[in-house]
Every structure is written in structure tokens, then in C-alpha cells.
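Data card: per-record layout.
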Amino acid sequence: MMKLSDTPARSLDKFIEDHLLPDEDFHTQVHEAIHIICSFLKERCFLWAPHPVWVSKVVKGGSSGKGTTLRGRSDADLVVFLTNLTSFQEQLQRRGEFIREIRRQLEACQREKTFEVKFEVHKQQWENPRALSFVLRSPQLYEWVQFDVLPAFDALGQLTRGYRPDPKVYIQLIQECESLRKEGEFSPCFTELQRAFLKDCPTKLKSLIRLVKHWYQMCKEKLGKPLPPQYALELLTVYAWEQGSMETRFSTAQGFQTVLELVLKHQKLCIYWEKYYDFENPIIGQYLLRQLAKRRPVILDPADPTGDVGGGDSYSWERLAQEARAWLSYPCFKKGDGSPVGSWNVSPKDHSDLIYKTYGFRQRYGTSPRLTHQRGAPPQVEENWTCAIL
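The structure for this 390-residue chain is written out next.
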């Protein structure tokens, strides 16, 4: 396999096709594994629970759900929505008991030789685990498939295409997160919106996301922790394309270079989208202003305003930026004659200056920001849902 670092810019699309896109057998295997576990969760898992438990739906999340799976990475996130959970706080308090029941029933299936599982136990999860991690093998599968199963409060109910949550959902989320001091803790509740946000992206943009994820995984193997979350890099790739291209056909090398250059500019990043929430409701609007005033980089989960996946963690971003700086001199960013491929015209500072004037507050880059807006929530800047940046 040719290394990505040695791949010429003109060959990046072929690199993605040959090495990163899942092949049909792999896709079938993962799909079959997901079907086995989904059927187990919906039809058997809680039949013998001490108290009645009702599963309203099981949603496939992660890369499998978003359509950005990398070849050879057989993992899947499954969010189990339970009608027994009636609030975010109750999810936090009771998720451990549901995870223990899921594990008991998986062990029962293993004793019956329905399928074989191995559990991955994380020390910090003994008391109140957020997810149950295990790998699955069955007679229908050639290899192990890794799962994370997460119980969740069904805050959204049944979704239809183009669904936009009632602001009451986000008001409840904000109030409970602030009360519990657990911002970003309940992102699994919004898995369907996260999935829709990326799944609707053009095919070539998904390929660029796969390329960025592959690069990120190589950085992770080399550097170890801490690094920014991979999801932050996925969202940064979407942002780069929205601000710099918006075309279904584009230069993969230019898109890749733009993302790495944005990593270098992490102290100027403050990104959010208005597809599912905006400033119109005063409670949500004021909360968003507080979020956007946090230390850079800020990248808000488009489905969950309490989730800042940028994290304001300059140290982890700087470690990734050092790798990005070295990579920009590699052949994958050079034309055939050795000249640079260039990048899209995406300037965080230009967008910031424009939005600051609209919102009436100022920001110093590289420092912990202070918000001076005094007139409540600002008007919505754009009528469509494409991202705005501060």
C-alpha cells in the first residue's frame, strides 16, 4: 500500500478509492453484525428485566451511520432510546442499570451460543458507564465487529426528513446541562441529527472526510493522546468545503490542504451551524453567545449546542498543528511540476470580523474571550443553515 505522504496530489482520489472506501464484503459484514445486535436490543434484551423496559428505537451512529466508514475499521455505535428515560438527568442517573442489563443478556446469548462476545471494560465506567463496549462474532461473520451501545433519553421522538427540533428540546437540554454541569454529555440523544448532517453531504465531500480521518488516525498512532476529537476534524472538513467550495466536484488535494491550514489557525476558529438551532429563542440565543465566547477553538456540534468539540484546548490542537505543518511539504500537496496545489480561500478572521459587527461584541484571538453584547440574542445572520463563523 502506498503511503499517503508519498501519494501525489493528482492520485489522492485513487488512494481513497483503493485504500479507504469500504469494500462490499466488509460493508455486508458490518451491516449483518449491526442487524444481529439491533434485533437483540429490540426483541430480546429487556424481556426478563426486573421492571418493564420499552425500546422506542435503536439508531446507528458513528461512522457507520454517517456513511464515512474507513476500510478495515469494523466498529459501530448503537444508541438505544428508552421510553423509561424521561429526562437528560434521568439518563445520567439510570444509564448504568440499563447497561448492566444489556451485558447480562449478552452473556446469556453467549452461553446459548447464539453469538460470541468479548467485553472491553474501562475502569472509569464501573460506577456509571456511558456506554457498553464489546466485540461480536457470530457464525454469519468472518471477523470481529466492535460495538459501543449507549442508552439514551428519546428527546426528539420520531423524526422525518427535514426535521427541526422544537426549541423546547434545546431549552430543556441547556437547563439540565447547566444544572448538572454536564455540557456535551447528552450528545447521543441527538445521534439522528448528527447522522443526517453528515449523511446528506455530497459523495466527494464524504471521501475528503475519510481522507482527513485517515490522516488523523496516523497522527494518533504517532503522537498518542491528547489530540482533538476526530469529530472536530470531520466538522472542520465540512466547514472548509462550505466556506471554500460548495461544489460537488473539487480538487481533493486543495480541500485536504485547506483543512490542515485551518488546523494551523485553530486559535481563530469559532464555528457553529444554524440548521437545527439558532438565536431566535432568547434562552437558546443567550446560551449560544456564552458558548461562542469561550476560549478558541470553538466548534459547536451542529446537533447539540452544549457540545463544544473544539474544546478550547490549545495544547492538543497545537500537537496536531505541528504534524499538519510538516505534512504541507509532502508530495500529496504538490502538482506534477512540483508547485503547490494551493488551498481554498477560507479565512476565519475575515468571517469573524463580519459577524462581530453584526453581533456587537469583540474578541481577542488567542486569549480567553470576553462577551460584551448587551441587547439579548442577536438576529439570525443567515436565513439558510450553512455555518456561520465567529
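Known properties of this structure: Confidence is low (pLDDT under 50) at residues 361-390. The two ends are 41 Å apart (CA to CA).

See the next section for split statistics.
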